[in-house]
Amino acid sequence: MKKVILSINAGSSSVKVSVYSAEAGQPPVQLAEATVSGLTAPPAKLDYSRGGQTVSKDSEVADKTLSQRDAFNVLLETLIGDRDLHQINGKEDIDIICHRIVHGGDFAKPQIISDETFHHLEKLNDLAPLHNASSLAIVQACVVQLPQARNVAYFDSQFHASIPAHIRTYPIDQGIARKNHLRKYGFHGISYAFITRATAGFLGADVDRVNLIALHLGSGASACAIQAGRSRDTSMGLTPLAGLPGATRSGSVDPSLVFHYASDVGKLSPSSTKDLHISRAEEILNKESGWKALTGTTNFGLIASSAEPEMQLAFDLVVDRISAFVGSYYVSLGGKVDALVFAGGIGERSDRLRKAVVEQVSCLGFAIDEAANGKKIENVVQDVGKAGAKHRVLVCLTDEQFEMARGCSENRELW
Prior knowledge:
This protein is an alpha/beta fold. Helix content is 34%, strand content 22%. It has helices spanning 68-81, 115-122, 132-145, 165-168, 174-179, 189-203, 257-261, 280-287, 290-295, 300-304, 309-332, 344-349, 351-360, 370-374, 400-409, and strands at 2-10, 14-23, 29-37, 44-50, 53-62, 96-101, 111-112, 150-155, 212-217, 221-227, 230-234, 339-343, 381-383, 392-396. The strands form two sheets. It has an eight-stranded mixed sheet with strand order 5-4-3-2-1-6-8-7, sandwiched between helices. It has a six-stranded mixed sheet with strand order 11-10-9-12-14-13, sandwiched between helices.
């Protein structure tokens, strides 16, 4: 029996929906994919492809700012209105909806969403005020508009439930830490689960035997030490702010920095609502920092191709921070590393960044093949390392939507 699965990935400025046909226990087959981007910088635009063929590209959706929920409604109307997408003739044809939720707290596996689960996730909003609320708004829309469908939450934090206590614990009063759920959670876990599975297959290794240093590098960036197929450490922490710098995130800084930055950093941000409680400090470090603060652009491709001093500073800073995590995780894994894996939009596209990072950590036994590194990355996993080097260097085209849909096809409760 085949079922239609919607896999929803809501970001801060975009919402992506992938449509799959699936049978129990079988890998899902993608039917279509649609994205509304530019939610925070109108006009919002729609990209839509079906069966690998482009149907719509950069079509303007609205000249006003859209919420993630608005964007989802546009995507749902697009799918239902496509007469050539025969598997969806109406809302009733959608059987399962899987949602990427950034912060899952102590949930170590996906959850079928009930009223109880939803209210528990709402309580986590203060741990991830910039991320969870928009995803939960889409969950609410699905419950109302698609009542026949089963909704499943997949958490970016769940892959990191295996991080040992001494690594996930912050050296603060543990009574307060437990009461307020203050510990390292880690994120990008759905991506790291896909990377681990895909890389193990490429290497011909069992998933529970592979050791990797994985880098998910995009506008949000993180690193992960994967030991025996499970997360041992990751660069993000209580929130996605810790660790590597991003397009608008500072990454890790001296915690006292915010108190010297401005006098009003502890006050609520003007963008806070009844659902969000964002301090001015969180807003500065999440939305007004990163390489945009250094260069004026969030486009890392532009930064990597420029010789301007401020661009070079940002590039060198990012390379330095990434390399530091690679070195740290190499030690954490005791030098037993099957591969260094680059993923995410920047990891997949920037051959200059890959080359610079690998050269900086070459003392550990990594080496780049410039010809292979310069080729377009077209395979799910592609080797860009130099033959004969001590460790492999790979690029993985990560796919969070597929990873969630695959999990749904293997979940007996949904069949």
